[in-house]
Amino acid sequence: MVLTRQRKGTTSWHLQPERILTRHFEQRGTFIKKLVLERAKKAGFDAGNGPDAATHVLASDCSGLGSDCMAMKRLGLTCSHLFASDVSVKSRRFINANFSPKHLVANALKRLDCGSMTGYSCGFPCQPFSRLNGRRKAWADKRTRLFDVALKTISTKEPAWAVLENVKGLAKYYPQVRAKIRAQGLTKKYVTLVAPMCPRDLLKEHARRPRLYFLMVRRDVAVKADLVHFVRLALSDICKSMPKPLALESYWLSKTGPSVSKTRHQKAVKKNEGFQPKWVKRHAKLKKNIRSDHIMKAKLLAAPSADLGLTPRESGALQIEWARRGCPNTFVADVSQNAGRVPWGISGEVPTLSCSGKIVSFDSSTPNTLKLVSAAEKLQLQGVDLSRVTIPKGMTELDMAKLAGNAMHVDIMALAMMLAMTMVNWNKYKLGSRMRTDKTDKH
């Protein structure tokens, strides 16, 4: 992997000599599109229904790194980017460098009317609903106002389709969600389907990322069919027919690459005489319930862990979790969490990526394979093709890790958007657009 200059102030990464992942991503996008359209044909959808024939105008809020735009390109659909918004300066710089939206704002709450759109997406903040957040406040959290903004945008601009995304913990608050959708008048305007999707379960990808996707299609242009049955069968087809991904090692960059660096953002440890952190007692308690031979084997990871820049707590958590699982050959764990609740995966499975997570991967059958997954590798696990994106100058490892942790998986986003677009009868949509234009001209 080498660095090449694209234009002043930006840097692009290119895989050489073969862009294996690039071809892999393109093939999966084509496969998703093909399976969904085949299922639509079997369901007897109107012949005029087809996203390829439409001119798409895309808009998004809480845009992250622009997974919606990447998904459109992966599906082979052309679109113009109307507007994007994100509170993160780094996200806005990344979006502007790669997709150049007509309008780019920091605060969606203060966004003005930007024009009409064909499709809309929003990955509104998940912290108020996440089960990993012990202090979640649900609707008392001010960040939930962005959900109201998304619903209001859909209600006023009336795009043909919309996709909203959030964590599965939102399912606990379905009554309030339905009430908010009804309050905006969207129950009469839109058909709304909620589909739980995870790249690991549906697409056989390595990274877990279970999420709820709200698929919304305007009723007056929706295909006249049983859409719930269609989505259910389409997801079943995807799950059964999707080819296996490349080996996990294919997502790792060269050790001499620009982004493979040790992330030494460790907290200072108190050095008072006689002081003992809480995790020491916790680790000792957990070790009592683990086989002694597994504990002895796990101690071999101590020295390599220190070389990666892991703290004693993180190194101990890695050893304990590996030993608790019976010392499997392949193991991936997020050691930023305390021992006993460390997210982990075996056989190429990668736990859900977070902004502050420290993912460690190793294969015990091969010596010296313990590695700390870099931010660039996390982006690739999220379906981002690094050879096709531009990294703004000055983007640090921590900045990119936050981008990866907040991102929607590109291939799952492509699937959700393809399902929504396929449920639109584009002949009706074009006719409706012409009729509205004529009325406006007469007035």
TrEMBL record:
GO terms for molecular function: methyltransferase activity. Keywords: Membrane, Methyltransferase, S-adenosyl-L-methionine, Transferase, Transmembrane, Transmembrane helix. It comes from the Eukaryota. SUPFAM superfamilies: S-adenosyl-L-methionine-dependent methyltransferases. InterPro entries: C5-MTase (IPR050750), C5_MeTfrase (IPR001525), SAM-dependent_MTases_sf (IPR029063). The chain crosses the membrane at residues 407-426. This is Modification methylase DsaV (M.DsaV) (Cytosine-specific methyltransferase DsaV). One of its GO terms (biological process) is methylation. Pfam families: DNA_methylase (PF00145). The keyword S-adenosyl-L-methionine applies. Gene3D superfamilies: Vaccinia Virus protein VP39.
